[in-house]
Amino acid sequence: MSIKNLNLKKYIIGPNTPIETTKGFIPRVYFNNSATTLILKPAMKKFFNLLPIYTYINVPPSNSKYITTMYEETRNVILEMVGADANRDVAIFTKNSTEAMNVLADVYLEADPEQVVLSTTMEHLANYLPYKARMQTELIAIGKNGNIDLEDYVLKLEKYQGKVKLVAVTGASNITGVVPPYYEMARLAHQYGAKIFVDIVQVIQHLPFTMKPHGYDEHIDFVAFSAHKAYSGLDGGALVGPYDVLEKYLPLDFGSGITQFIDSSKIIYDNPPQKYETGYPDVLGVITMSKALQFLKKVGLDNIAKYERKLYKYLLYRMEEVPDITIYDSHSPFVHIPYISFSLKGIHFKTVAAKLGLDHGIEIGNGTLGADLYVQFLLGLSNEEAYECYKSGMGYGVNRVSLGMYNTFEEIDVFIHALKEIALSTR
Ligand SMILES: Cc1ncc(COP(=O)(O)O)c(C=O)c1O
Hints:
Elements lengths: L11 E2 L4 E4 L2 E4 L1 E2 L8 E2 H10 L11 H20 L7 E6 L2 H15 L4 E5 L8 H4 L3 E5 L9 H10 L4 E7 L11 H10 L3 E5 L22 E5 L10 E6 H4 L12 E5 L2 E4 L13 H17 L1 H19 L5 E3 L11 E6 L4 H12 L1 E2 L1 E3 L4 H8 L3 H10 L5 E5 L6 H16 L3
The structure holds pyridoxal-5'-phosphate (PLP).
Pyridoxal-5'-phosphate binds next to α3.
């Protein structure tokens, strides 16, 4: 299927819904796909088709069996999508990726509270704070090339040798789109007896990805993602990891559905994934996620990546025309997803985002976007300076354009026109 001839907008709900601006109602341009994507029609169709037969899962009537089967089969859809091994890995359903990373952190805390977790300065807080709040967590620096500093990584692996059990790194930055060398990092982690987790929240909807087979040096041990960033619109996400690790530990949350047997003196917990999924499952969210992932697979992540690459290059080329713009990590060879963060000289990031939204109907991201330490680094702020910004009430941050598979070159033109108008307004 050639994506060149495919108008993916027709599969999306409301990509250009008219919204009220200071210039009247105009079709919106949605460039905040990193925060959450718009929603796929086929996913919502699946959701609405389920409603008339919606029922409790795992009970005798056939509707229930049908729904339960689709719910359970989503695990295989996920395992296949991330190149996991269905015989050795499990997909645990979570509320979102943040919950998945908290489950992982909790597992590692239970395994050894004295260990050191290695995370990176590039992370979203979801892949830093869950470990930092529980265990000693050290940050791998960013090098001169704008990517993870592998020398610093090795130094930290050496320094904490024997204590590092988990390395946690993003699969792609939600700020700059930079992709860290996670296979190389996996190889090194394994050499030092650690496992590696890759946060693929910003990967699964943009790039082909594989965990690679168990036993390979470059095998990725754990991954997690959120469905709402992959066009499903509803809650839902997953943690994927090895059964033989996950079976040993306790869940993050406790309640019904996670035990095989319990009396007042004994508890026999169920096996993963059930052990980690207490309470009533998010059946509708999970099945909708399944449909969204299947859609991405059908279009082909290769095709999506190719098309988005063209969009990204055009966006970068046009953004460089804008006066007084700073683009973070422009022309970095490591940017592989279509996100660009920038600042306009002399205009507060909140003002830029507000003007784009209120005057032009263009939605972008602004602020630290959950990656506070990375944004601080990109802006060259010391801890003291960042804290001063916080105390002054001005905050610090960037503006971010993040494209999705349905965005178009015409939308980029509309955005550039608006951005130039804003940049010139202060001259
Ligand atoms: C790289 C990355 N990881 C994790 C998250 C957290 O995702 P969620 O809020 O869906 O759990 C985000 C959200 O923007 C992100 O960009």
